[in-house]
Amino acid sequence: MYELIQSNKRRSVLLVASFVIVVGLVGAAFGLVFGGGLIVTPVAVVIGATIAFASYWKADTIALAVSRAKPADLDEYARLHNLVDGLCIASGLPKPGVYIVDDPAPNAFATGRNPKHASIAVTTGLLDKMNRVELEGVVAHELSHIRNYDILISTLAVTMVGAVALLSDVAIRTMWWNGGRVRRSGDHNNRNNPLALVGFVLLILAPLIAKVMQASISRQRETLADVSACQMTRYPPGLISALEKLQADTTVTHSASTATAHLWIEQPMSGVGDDGRLGGPHRWFNTHPPLEERIALLREL
């Protein structure tokens, strides 16, 4: 398990570096499309590095704000605070900030840059539908993400994926509409340039690459957090029962977005479990392993 934690840290560095490379490719594509050449690439790399640095300090705040999370009142949510306190004492973790998301769908996530600067958030739906041992299993899962240092790269990805998508979208809109203003005389010739076509293809593919990166972040980490949670509570049936309830529930987490989907304990967006025509494409971008696989693994412990 400790080797996996170290592997997660190494992967985090590689993923951040990959993000900067993707932003550099977006910059190169921008230069090819608009005739600026590859000179735009260093500028894009600097922008990517700046976004990564800023995200390190503020991405957790952004993730909580996007999810509309509010601090959990000590009196109103005493049961939740007691569970967090007990698990933190047992695992030697500092107590994270505890937040509530007003959403009927049962779900939860952890965010932050390290165990000393971390937060967990649970939905009101989770509190309503889980008994004490099930809720303890979910909280232990989120605390495991904090202990395993999953939260840093998961939180950074919130702004990273959004930044790549935004840069690509702006470039494509500017290319076709010239900012909604006048048409420039050189626009048509530049679009017929083969290199400009390559740049346009890169702009189209960049958001998809970012989504694949996002999907790769949490799949293995979710399984590790499940096992770590059972080690923390010493009662696998609690988390198993919680995951079974999550599997049976089909409510969409409205407080989630495509940028924060990988943070939650289960896939929060619509399309999960879709066996229709779009079932295959939906699974390509799933940020979590199937719940049935996670449950089966825990039953073997």
SSE layout and pairings?
Layout lengths: L1 H33 L5 H27 L2 E3 L6 H14 L5 E5 L6 E7 L2 E7 H6 L2 H16 L3 H27 L9 H5 L2 H40 L2 H13 L30 H6 L6 H9 L2
Parallel strand pairs: 2-4
Antiparallel strand pairs: 1-2, 3-4
Describe the structure.
The chain is built from 11 helices and 4 strands. It is α+β, with helices and mostly antiparallel strands. The protein has one domain (2-299). The protein has a 4-stranded mixed beta sheet with strand order 1-2-4-3, with helices on both faces. Helix 1 (2-34) packs across helix 2 (40-66), helix 1 runs antiparallel to helix 8 (194-233) and helix 5 (132-147) packs across helix 9 (236-248). The protein is elongated, with a radius of gyration of 21 Å. The two termini are 14 Å apart. Residues 184-188 have low confidence and may be disordered.
Kindly list the characteristics that best describe this protein.
alpha+beta; 11 helices; four-stranded mixed β-sheet; 301 residues; 4 strands; 65% helix
Task: Give the C-alpha Rg.
Answer: 21 Å
Please describe the biggest sheet, giving its number of strands, its sense, and whether it closes into a barrel. Answer: 4 strands, mixed
Quaternary structure classification: single chain
- How many helices? The count is 11
Low-confidence stretches: 184-188
